[in-house]
Automatic annotation (TrEMBL):
GO cellular component: autophagosome membrane; lysosomal membrane; multivesicular body membrane; neuron projection; neuronal cell body
Gene3D superfamilies, sorted: Calcium-transporting ATPase, cytoplasmic domain N, Calcium-transporting ATPase, cytoplasmic transduction domain A, Calcium-transporting ATPase, transmembrane domain, HAD superfamily/HAD-like
Catalytic activity of the protein: spermine(out) + ATP + H2O = spermine(in) + ADP + phosphate + H(+); spermidine(out) + ATP + H2O = spermidine(in) + ADP + phosphate + H(+)
Membrane topology: Multi-pass membrane protein
A GO biological process held by the record: regulation of protein localization to nucleus
Function, as annotated: ATPase which acts as a lysosomal polyamine exporter with high affinity for spermine. Also stimulates cellular uptake of polyamines and protects against polyamine toxicity. Plays a role in intracellular cation homeostasis and the maintenance of neuronal integrity. Contributes to cellular zinc homeostasis. Confers cellular protection against Mn(2+) and Zn(2+) toxicity and mitochondrial stress. Required for proper lysosomal and mitochondrial maintenance. Regulates the autophagy-lysosome pathway through the control of SYT11 expression at both transcriptional and post-translational levels.
Protein name, entry field: Polyamine-transporting ATPase 13A2
Organism of provenance: Heterocephalus glaber (Naked mole rat)
Region (Disordered): 1184-1206
InterPro entries in the cross-refs: ATPase_P-typ_cyto_dom_N, ATPase_P-typ_P_site, ATPase_P-typ_TM_dom_sf, ATPase_P-typ_transduc_dom_A_sf, ATPase_P-type_domA, HAD-like_sf, HAD_sf, P-type_TPase_V
Transmembrane segments: 260-280, 432-451, 463-488, 939-958, 964-981, 1002-1032, 1052-1069, 1081-1101, 1121-1141
Amino acid sequence: MSADSSPLVGSPAASYGTLMIGTSIGPLSSSASSVRLSGYCGSPWRAIGYHAVVWVLAGIPLLLFRWKPSWGVRLRSRPCSLAHAETLVIETRDKEDSSWQLFTVQVQTEAVVEGSLELPLQAEDGRSKMALGAVPETPWKDTARLHRREEAGRLPLAFLSPQKQVVRYYLFQGRRYVWIETQQAFLQVSLLGHGHTCDDIHSSRSGLSLPDQTMRKTIFGPNVISIPVKSYPQLLVDEVLNPYYGFQAFSIGLWLADHYYWYALCIFLISAISICLSMLKTRKQSQTLKDMVKLSVRVRVCRPGEGEEWVDSSKLVPGDCLVLPPEGGLMPCDAALVAGECMVNESCLTGESVPVLKTALPEGPRPYCPESHRRHTLFCGTLVLQARAYGGPHVLAVVTQTGFCTAKGGLVSSILHPRPINFKFYKHSMKFVAALSVLALLGTIYSIFILHHNRVPVNEIVIRALDLVTVVVPPALPAAMTVCTLYAQSRLQAQGIFCIHPLRINLGGKLRLVCFDKTGTLTENGLDVMGVVPLKGQAFLPLVPEPRCLPMGPLLRALATCHALSWLQDTPVGDPMDLKMVESTGWVLEEEPAADAALGTPVLAVMRPPPWEPQTQGTEPHVPLGVLGRFPFSSSLQRMGVVVAWPGAAQPEAYIKGSPELVASLCSPDTVPADFSKTLQSYTAAGYRVVALACKPLSIAPSMEAVQQLSRDTAEQDLSFLGLLVMRNLLKPQTTRVIQALRRTCIRTVMVTGDNLQTAVTVARGCGMVAPRERLVIIHATYPEQGRPASLEFLPTECPTAVNGAKDPDKAASYTMEPDPQSSHLALSGSTFGVLMKHFPKLLPKVLVQATVFARMAPEQKTELVCELQRLQYCVGMCGDGANDCGALKAADVGISLSQAEASVVSPFTSSMPSIECVPMVIREGRCSLDTSFSMFKYMALYSLTQFVSVLILYTINTNLGDLQFLAIDLVITTTVAVLMSRTQPALALGRARPPGALLSVPVLSTLLLQMALVAGVQLGGYFLVVAQPWFVPLNKTVPAPDNLPNYENTVVFSLSSFQYLILAAAVSKGAPFRQPLYTNVPFLVALVLLGSVLVGLILVPGLLQGPLGLRNIADTCFKLLLLGLAACNFVGAFMLEVGCRPRLGGKEGQRDLGLRLGPSCPSTPHSLCRVCWTSVFQPACSSSGPNGPPRSASSSWNRSSLSSPGRRCPLLVL
């Protein structure tokens, strides 16, 4: 069931029945990690039996099959192989959930004319070439054989056709899965192009012929992201047949039979209003989403031998070649740019407001991947601001994905089909409702017995017994629970934080760890140039604060040209760092669409020198520089480059800019200064961002045509080191305060950045993630090489070799550390993280619980980190700007994107405020919402159980509550307080305590049972007190309820229970520590006071309400005061149970977890890390523990073989 074992949906080994799948339903369906597929086909006998069952049971099974469609499929169809299936049952399970979700889909067919398959059989490289594109000849992709006439003998009759062949497919969550005959399995159409190389993409520049396009459209389907918008009659049917409203309809019918007309009418009106509002809201949301994703434009495509053709974007298929207009426009599909450059706004997908420059995809045998070639890929839904052609008349892009298989389609699918939330509270709430149903069954049995004993007619017994079910199981529970999150969502929106998944607000209350991006999140977006460190020979010169003062030479040329800036509406746009760098040189960007007069050759852009200034004698004069080609920045490569020429230059030069460590590794060793590591550490330790520059003369002609044939690898090897660009990236003013506040509340804070490790460490110390007196240890890992296993090194930051990874045990051994497991942090790079993932999987969890700084992390590594932390049962938050952390934001339990957009599909939360102040706000609202949800659930459960006790007491004496009494309890009292109690604001400050995540826990269940015992005791006490009074007159048991109203028993039970509904609402609404005090919720407090005053008046002076409510007047004033005293005792007891007993009944939360998960962020936590582990690793350097024991120096080295050695174990593996 591994998600990576196969790209097929189906198993070629099995022949029929339920088939197991080795992958999720698709790469875009990341929520499901396990999928099972079952095939079913029609069976006449089963169909007859199905209709017979439906007819005999008066259509009731149809309602059940609507709620559980798979049951109906299994009843009327027989299991069969996928090759014969007409209907499929798809079972999916989330990676963190144990329950399966079931879906049913119909297998569809579409006829294809035979002539459309007449294509060249072989490509130049010998691979099969067909209508689906050139794909490698692997066992599962050698062909997508369609059902020909001779193969259709075993298929259903609908597939038979002598002239045509058909494509079998099904649609699931918008995506299409096509049947692969050779493997007897379904394959998502987005994977049909898997394995295409960059050369394959470029070979499609001529476009598709019309027959090819027709064939591909049959297989891939139309290029639309279809959002179903149901009509109002359909919505009405869906709402009315919802199980919740089905139960309401059953209850209303029961109440009408029991002559509770007023109550039934009110519930009917409320339900009708609720259905109408729900219909309007659902219709509006669907229409809004449809309008947001609707995109139908006319585009120009290439046709081989036919020139160009204008077509509707819905007809685009993978392989089409688009001609992009100079003014740009919205992209209707995913496409690889093969000619020209585009400036693109991707804010709708990533939240990043800075336009991105896209360049042409380089040719070569490397497999094309949209993620690794992001800088060459135009994504669906993004806005092309401008397109410029170079080396040809047009800007061309080859379509790679369409419809729901595009990046935008995947995000829309995640909105329509969000990942299931694996939260104990929701699971336990369902179990608790099931327990209430069991209690209702027991109550029903008791009521039948007691009513039969009282000689009540059989029809009356049935009605009363069923009525008890409507009392115990609260039908308003789902609506009441929804109110809690809606209030929290509206409060967040008022603070500029928008949420598209309200259910995730409660998860914010369980956050134990928050990951932060660095640049633009913890630090300012903008960078200030501090200066340039040039070279002289093999030694660094002092810092030059003004780069514009540098003499003309390779370093100045690199600073002026090594960027991806562009002009957009007379404004330079691009990466903020590039803008600052070019600004510091004084050079001016000019973009030339034709040949530059000074250079005599076409260029991408020209950098003009600043106005002439007196130059130092012997320096070269400043001349314009032409950019012939660009190698875009890549997060995985950590660098970018340009190829530059200038007047008089015989050959161009390549200039590279990127990570200092990586650029230095690409340079010839004799050009890298000996003090490189020391100089780099001196700047990064001060918190500066450092970028290295290098150059290389190229032995090619200074023309764009020659540069286009140049591979990136060739241009970026044997470089000459030029110097360092030093930039300052200041912390945002709010960062330190927020980080310290989170740490005080025992919430781990982790930095995940693509920046240098030492810079990240300095920022972590500067913002308080690592306190001044806390130790920070660097982990370095190396991959296995030359027969040596993978190894790890643990170095304190005090060691000068720690950050740069030099392996010198003699130097490292002199730096010793006292073991301090509770205040030690780990820092590691993306490379080390990769080694741990691959070679030290058992050690990885131990590292993750102490790691605070992750540097040089690629975007996919950020996502992997979040997933690994979730496997440790952390509830993980992620805060970033959405630029290169989209995957991590989506994978996190609570992802918060800092964006100016009102809402983003990148993450559940989008904050318009530019700082991390939004994180404590989300946590406070999450804790408030979760605590309120617990309180609401308890209140609704206690309300039902309170009424359950009242009804059982009255049933015992052959009476019941009256019609208007039920109405007063359910609508006037309960509904009012349930709606208003959720309005309480969150606490003003975060505390260390967290709301419980499990409803079925000792504190919750114990207080619930004790409150229930108190409620029953008070009602029974009131009943026995009134029976013992000398003036008491028993009711006439020969007259059935409600005709025997009013009576004393009913009056006392109703009066006391009415007080109890208010008392319980106030008791479960205590404020601290997650909410503000009860008195701050003024509407709720006013409602409690007013309703309480009315109830007191009903006892002391019944007045006009006595008759309609069916109450009997009690003349004894002392007894009235006694009832009020009993209610007061109930009030005191209820508050004592909530405030006093619950803390004693609950233990320390989370002790059954790993005992490691809080890590160093909570120094008081005794389980931060096993002291034995750190004592073994960081023992002062005095002696070795033995020939097989760990070394006792500050630098501890461990390799793969030592982990498996019986006498030598990594101390971090010891718990």
